[in-house]
């Protein structure tokens, strides 16, 4: 039997170091925001004949557009996606004529500009959405576990869930902040979606473990030490939690290595978040109940 409760200091220390590094990366580097948040232009086009490489196309666009901040990648259909600061329609037509002259098979598919005010509004709504999800899940857990208030109050289940969700979101967010500083990786709307998905899977694994603890507490909570009940409950759900999440991790690994490049960092955020979610639901959430029990037990 895995002694999760007995080794909780080791797990807490490892998580504290990981979260501390993530928070430090976010504080030092911040996030490199994509056009979704800071505004800019997204230009989708295709070049069928003599298709250039991404590196050569970026160099050509920097020269043609006279823009230093130009990034190009491929979408799921094989078309090019160019991102650069916002430009007026007159300048767009000049760029279009220049590229058609350089690449005869150039075909524009879409050209969209997002103003800075729109990006700021999206950023604000994204932060509000994440906060509401965190608070809503915590209140729901506290209500759902109201009948298992011995020896830990139900609202403490909510607090523990909130801490584990912060743990699972902070680590992938810190990774993206580091990648943005070192390799220029930008965050966009997909990043927010990935964090919300990570919260959903994380709270699912945590509830599976908490529900078994609740059942065992109701059956024999006053006959055995709470630490023993928690440790047995974690071991009873260990195989289910790992196997369920492992299937998702295998799919994400396949998508990461063989999926579209446009979703590369979206999948990476999911992969890291789901992995940390498995760890936190087993090694962090349940031992935290022991920590929060205090003198109540």
Short description:
With 297 residues, the chain is α+β, with helices and mostly antiparallel strands.
Written description of the protein model:
This protein is of the alpha+beta class. The chain folds into 2 domains: 8-34 and 118-293, Multidrug efflux transporter AcrB transmembrane domain (Multidrug efflux transporter AcrB transmembrane fold, Up-down Bundle), CATH 1.20.1640.10; 40-114, Alpha-Beta Plaits (2-Layer Sandwich), CATH 3.30.70. It contains 10 helices and 4 strands. The longest helix is centred in the C-terminal third of the chain and has 33 residues, at 226-258. The model has no long low-confidence stretch (mean pLDDT 84).
The tally of strands reads 4
Going across the biggest sheet, name each strand in turn.
Answer: 2-3-1-4
Number of DSSP helical runs:
10
Q: List segments where confidence is low: pLDDT < 50 over at least 5 consecutive residues.
A: none
Order of helices and strands: HHEHEEHEHHHHHH
**Mean pLDDT score:** 84
CATH class of the largest domain, named Mainly Alpha
Assign an overall shape. Answer: elongated
The CATH architecture of the largest domain comes to Up-down Bundle
| Percentage beta strand | 5-15%
Structural class: alpha+beta
Proportion of residues in helical segments? 55-70%
Whole-Å distance between the termini? 24 Å
Question: Rg to the nearest angstrom?
Answer: 24 Å
What is the count of distinct domains? Answer: 2
CATH superfamily of the largest domain: Multidrug efflux transporter AcrB transmembrane domain
Classify the fold: give the CATH topology of the largest domain: Multidrug efflux transporter AcrB transmembrane fold
Question: Strand count, sense and closure of the main sheet?
Answer: 4 strands, antiparallel
């Amino acid at each position: 039997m895995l002694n999760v409760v007995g080794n909780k200091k080791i797990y807490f220390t490892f998580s504290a170091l990981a979260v501390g590094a993530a928070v430090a990366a976010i504080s030092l580097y911040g996030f490199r925001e994509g056009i979704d948040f800071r505004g800019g232009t997204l230009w989708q086009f295709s070049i069928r004949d003599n298709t250039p490489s991404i590196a050569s196309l970026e160099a050509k666009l920097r020269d043609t557009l006279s823009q230093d901040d130009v990034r190009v990648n491929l979408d799921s259909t094989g078309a090019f996606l160019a991102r650069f600061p916002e430009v007026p329609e007159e300048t767009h037509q000049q760029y279009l004529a220049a590229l058609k002259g350089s690449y005869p098979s150039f075909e524009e598919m879409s050209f969209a500009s997002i103003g800075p005010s729109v990006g700021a509004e999206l950023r604000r709504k994204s932060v509000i959405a994440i906060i509401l999800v965190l608070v809503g899940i915590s209140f729901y857990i506290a209500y759902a576990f109201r009948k298992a208030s011995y020896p830990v109050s139900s609202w403490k289940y909510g607090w523990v869930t909130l801490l584990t969700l912060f743990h699972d979101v902070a680590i992938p967010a810190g990774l993206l902040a580091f990648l943005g500083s070192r390799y220029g990786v930008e965050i966009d709307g997909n990043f927010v979606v990935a964090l919300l998905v990570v919260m959903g899977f994380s709270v699912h694994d945590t509830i599976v473990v908490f529900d078994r603890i609740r059942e065992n507490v109701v059956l024999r909570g006053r006959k055995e030490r709470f630490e023993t009940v928690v440790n047995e409950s974690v071991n009873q759900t260990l195989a289910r939690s790992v196997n369920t999440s492992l299937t998702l991790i295998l799919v994400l690994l396949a998508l990461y290595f063989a999926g579209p490049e446009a979703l590369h960092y979206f999948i990476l955020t999911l992969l890291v978040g789901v992995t940390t979610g498995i760890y936190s639901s087993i090694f962090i959430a349940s031992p935290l109940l022991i920590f929060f029990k205090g003198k109540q037990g």
